[in-house]
Design a protein that fits this description.
Catalytic activity: L-homoserine + acetyl-CoA = O-acetyl-L-homoserine + CoA
Domain AB hydrolase-1: 41-323
CATH topology of the largest domain: Rossmann fold
Oligomer: single chain
Order of helices and strands: EEEEEHEHEHEHHHHHHEHEHH
Strand content: 15-25%
Subcellular location: Cytoplasm
Number of helices: 12
Largest sheet: 8 strands, mixed
Subunit structure: Homodimer.
Shape: globular
Helix content: 25-40%
Strand order of the largest sheet: 1-4-6-5-7-8-9-10
Main location: cytoplasm
Structural class: alpha/beta
Length: 343
């Protein structure tokens, strides 16, 4: 069973930046049925441009016949603040039908996203989450949430993520935003503003999501003759157009800034002290070819989260391996749960 719903927060949401969102809605989907003991909940935190339909964007891991089968699990995935898939974001009309805020949408941090989802968790009456899972920006949310509410989660699974967004990752995000800001239509405050810039930004992002090996394998020329019209060029154009067709530049800027804000140790005596708050049995998964979140960042998590396990996938897909290598992830999860239940 799939259930598409919208939760409206009962009160304005104060943001970490000091701004306040007067009206906040959180779009979410559920899959499967909550069992009588209410102990089969899996909560998924999604990445940058995904939505609440986890069966759509994480096939092979979620869905019938997969490790997280809705026949067995009650799966919850909520769209993050700042996105364009139903939760409050830059294109959401204001109070009493006021115009959307577009580029004036306030800074939303990962902590703000978690604050909204924590209210949703309480609204749903889910006192204990069996597994909290997320990759990339989703992993950053999951870590932040596990630090804030350590007693709420039994198991934590994070993939290709970090305790604090790196200067390298921030630089990639800034390069993408510069591409968007170079498109003057971004400042026109219309739903289609910044589309050319968003296309360029996505092309930049792909260089951090994939790897040298991945491009060599999938985009190499079949012959030596071409002087132009390369497959790799066409691929960048295609991926840019694909994102423009389903996303908007204002949400992209808002969410990339949120990712930059991620730092579990902020005002908590540092990263190590914050990670020590986590009580969930934790599996941290790195990807050998990930240049955006190198394995060293996941190894740091595993060192400082009490009792955490670290596993590394050998993959040529780069950062996107967390979405693609579902067979490897399934194997690691099966081993993790067996070891967890044996404790």
């Amino acid at each position: 069973m799939t259930n598409n719903q919208v939760f409206r927060l009962p009160a304005p949401l104060p943001l970490e930046s000091g701004a306040v969102l007067a009206e906040v809605r959180v779009a979410y989907q559920t899959f499967g049925t909550l069992n009588a003991t209410r102990d089969n909940v899996v909560w998924v935190c999604h990445a940058l441009t995904a939505n609440a339909d986890v069966l759509e964007w994480w096939p092979g891991l979620f869905g019938p016949g997969c490790h997280f089968n809705p026949a067995d699990w009650f799966i919850v995935c909520a769209n993050i603040l700042g996105s364009c898939y139903g939760s409050t974001g830059p294109l959401t009309p204001g109070e009493d039908g006021a115009a959307p805020l577009y580029q004036a949408f306030p800074l939303v941090t990962v902590r703000d996203m978690v604050a909204a989802h924590e209210q949703l968790r309480q609204q749903l009456g889910l006192t204990k989450i069996h597994t909290l899972i997320g990759g990339s920006l989703g992993g950053q949310q999951a870590l932040e949430w596990a630090v804030q509410q350590p007693a709420a989660f039994e198991h934590l699974v994070v993939l290709a993520t970090s305790a604090r967004h790196s200067p390298w990752g921030i630089a990639f995000n800034e390069a993408q935003r510069l591409a968007i800001f170079a498109d003057s239509t971004y400042f026109s405050a219309t739903p289609a503003g910044g589309q050319a810039g968003l296309k360029a930004a996505r092309a930049v992002a792909l260089l951090s999501y994939r790897s040298y090996e991945a491009y060599t394998t999938s985009q190499a020329e079949p012959a030596d003759e071409p002087l132009t019209g390369f497959r790799a060029s066409s691929y960048q154009q295609y991926q840019g157009d694909k994102l423009v067709a389903r996303f908007d530049a204002y949400s992209y800027v808002a969410l990339s800034r949120a990712m930059d804000s991620h730092h579990v140790g902020r005002n908590r005596s540092g990263v190590e002290a914050a990670l020590r708050r986590i009580q969930a049995r934790t599996l941290v998964i790195g990807i050998s070819s990930d240049v955006l979140f190198p394995p060293a960042e996941q190894q740091l998590l595993a060192r400082h989260i009490p009792g955490a396990q670290y596993a590394e996938m050998d993959s040529g897909f780069g950062h996107d391996g967390f979405l693609i290598e579902t067979a490897q992830i399934t194997h690691l999860l099966e081993r993790f749960y067996v070891q967890s239940f044996a404790r």
